[in-house]
Design brief:
- The protein is mainly α.
- It has a domain at 5-53 and 61-106.
- The chain contains 5 helices and 2 strands.
- It has helices at residues 5-37, 39-51, 61-65, 69-101, 111-114; strands at 119-123, 127-131.
- It has a two-stranded antiparallel ribbon with strand order 1-2.
- Helix 1 (5-37) crosses helix 4 (69-101) and helix 2 (39-51) packs antiparallel against helix 4 (69-101).
- The chain crosses the membrane at residues 21-49, 74-94.
- One of its GO terms (molecular function) is PDZ domain binding.
- This is TMM88 protein.
- It is found in: Membrane.
């Protein structure tokens, strides 16, 4: 049966808040994973740009004794070349972790706010879902 207008508004706010928190959790997890996996690329490109005379030309000792313009250019190119495989690795790690934690199943549909009788239940390995019958055969990924 349909909810009253104020109850529907309250449930809509609750569900919107839960969905926003799940989205922020996904975003934070993705940021942490990509930062850790892409750290070698970030470091190599940073030192390449820092020591190149046409860009920043730092007066640090390692720039003057170890890295000239040619080696700085090589570092920049190496950093951008290794970025592609590391992006694939980072995305694979994020997708594997999101699948294992079932983060994408945590989003709640707004139909829960409109009608009474829908409930939050536990499915499978403890991922929250919204269903009237709580179908345990339903999977997010095949």
């Amino acid at each position: 049966e349909p909810r009253s207008p104020w109850c529907c508004l309250a449930w809509t706010l609750v569900i919107g808040t839960v969905n926003s928190l799940v989205f922020l959790l996904n975003l934070l997890l993705m940021f942490v994973i990509f930062t850790i996996v892409l750290l070698p690329t970030i470091v190599v490109v940073y030192f390449g740009f820092q020591c190149h005379s046409q860009v920043l030309h730092s007066s640090a000792r390692y720039c003057q004794s170890f890295l000239d313009d040619n080696s700085s250019s090589a570092l920049i190119i190496l950093g951008f070349v290794i970025m592609s495989p590391l992006l694939v690795v980072a995305m694979a790690i994020y997708c594997s972790l999101a699948r294992r934690l079932q983060l994408l199943v945590c989003f709640q549909p707004y139909s829960l706010a409109l009608y009474k009788g829908g409930r939050w239940c536990r499915r499978g390995e403890g991922a929250p879902c919204c269903a009237r019958g709580c179908n345990t055969q339903l999977k997010a990924w095949v």
